[in-house]
Amino acid sequence: MLLNEAVYDLKRSAIREFSALARKTPGCIALTLGEPDFDTPQVIRTEAEKSLENHETHYIENNGNPDLRVKIAEFETQKHGFTCDQSQVIVTAGATEALFVSLFGTLNPGDEVIIPMPAFVLYEEIVKLCRAKTVPLDISKSDFQIDRDELSMLITDKTKAIVLNTPNNPTGTILSEASLKAIHDLVKGRDIFVICDDVYRELVYTDNYHSFAEFGDIRDQIILVQSFSKPYAMTGWRMGYMIAPPAVKERLELVHQFIVVSTPSPFQKAAIQALDYDNVQLKDAYRKRRAYVLDRLDRMGLSYPQPLGAFYVFPCIKDLGLDSATFCRRMISEAGLAATPGSCFGSEGYIRLTYCYSDSQLKEGLDRLETFVNKLRSADGLS
């Protein structure tokens, strides 16, 4: 029996593929998944428990608990300067649903979506389901920043959206003010949406961070996507939200309604508490792990784009004689360490390492990486 043609074009995530391969390999250490090793803070869990004890287990407004929507609007306006009203907020089943709703609700078959590469694997697959076309913008050639001329050449009358992810998965890099300004100047006044996937915004290790959503003069072209997963160690809760221009939000909320109806009521109460939670302890831990990982990579002689947010680093392996998928497969079988190939994210010649793991796992994992890299260099006469 034939299915929707679009589903035959979908690819399984290489992140999951290499994680599964690691699980099948005895003793293998996996630095593949972006899964915080912290538990959800007790104060957040307690709110969900209270909600369950109070029997708050019934249907809720499709767009989310009104108190949570107000809290989100206040959080974005006061903390991040993204002035909005609770009426623009849709509480979603994680950022994944928010991204799907954003793209499905704005794209028509044949439309084009510009995605700076490397990028998270999800975007391109959603674009396929929408019968639209991904137009990759390779930013690895421009120090992982936006080259205005390169972007300008990709914009056509079919361009409907640009997806921005800063801090970036898989690199941890952030887009500079110059990059954001270049995008702003090229899309202003055109029928192009900018979908801001800012899910790592609360995990930034520099004071010089800006989101594209801060541009107030084109607010009617911006859709902001956020998640509770990474900053509050709530990946399994599947809680996120999106904020869209009023006219757009009226239609997008219907897409959301007919996909999930609403997200779980008790979890929405917990999300209110999360927005008051100071995740400084979690950030400090990641900052220290980041410093350790970068120091180890420096000692190995592996270069990387500077990660200023999230919990990823994207070392370059171009001089080691293997494509990224082969490198990662051999590293699992020969060194007992799993990483994700850069080809998975649209950038060959790199691998993604995730440092949201324990100090002991990181040390052992990087010891194994160093041994494997030295082995390759010795075999090829590169050392």
Structure, explained:
The chain has two domains: 5-40 and 279-379, Aspartate Aminotransferase, domain 1 (Alpha-Beta Complex); 55-274, Aspartate Aminotransferase, domain 2 (3-Layer(aba) Sandwich), CATH 3.40.640. Helix content is 40%, strand content 13%. The protein has twelve helices and twelve strands. It has helices at residues 14-23, 42-53, 66-80, 94-106, 122-129, 148-154, 177-187, 246-260, 265-274, 280-300, 324-335, 359-379, and strands at residues 29-30, 89-92, 112-117, 133-138, 159-164, 193-197, 222-227, 240-243, 312-313, 337-338, 340-341, 351-354. Helix 5 (122-129) links the parallel strand 3 and strand 4 (133-138). Helix 2 runs antiparallel to helix 9 and helix 4 (94-106) packs across helix 5. The chain is globular. The mean pLDDT is 95.
CATH topology of the largest domain: Aspartate Aminotransferase, domain 2
CATH architecture classification name of the largest domain? 3-Layer(aba) Sandwich
Q: Could you tell me the mean pLDDT? A: 95
**How large is the share of residues in beta strands?**
5-15%
Integer tally of domains: 2
Supply the number of helical segments: 12
Q: What proportion of the residues is helical, as a percent range?
A: 40-55%
Order of helices and strands: HEHHEHEHEHEHEEEHHHEHEEEH
Characterize the largest beta sheet: strand count, sense, and whether it forms a barrel. 7 strands, mixed
User: Which structural class should the secondary elements be placed in?
Assistant: alpha/beta
> How many strand elements?
12
Shape field: globular
CATH class of the largest domain: Alpha Beta
For the terminal residues, how far apart are their CA atoms? 56 Å
Q: Are there runs of 5+ residues with pLDDT below 50, and where?
A: none
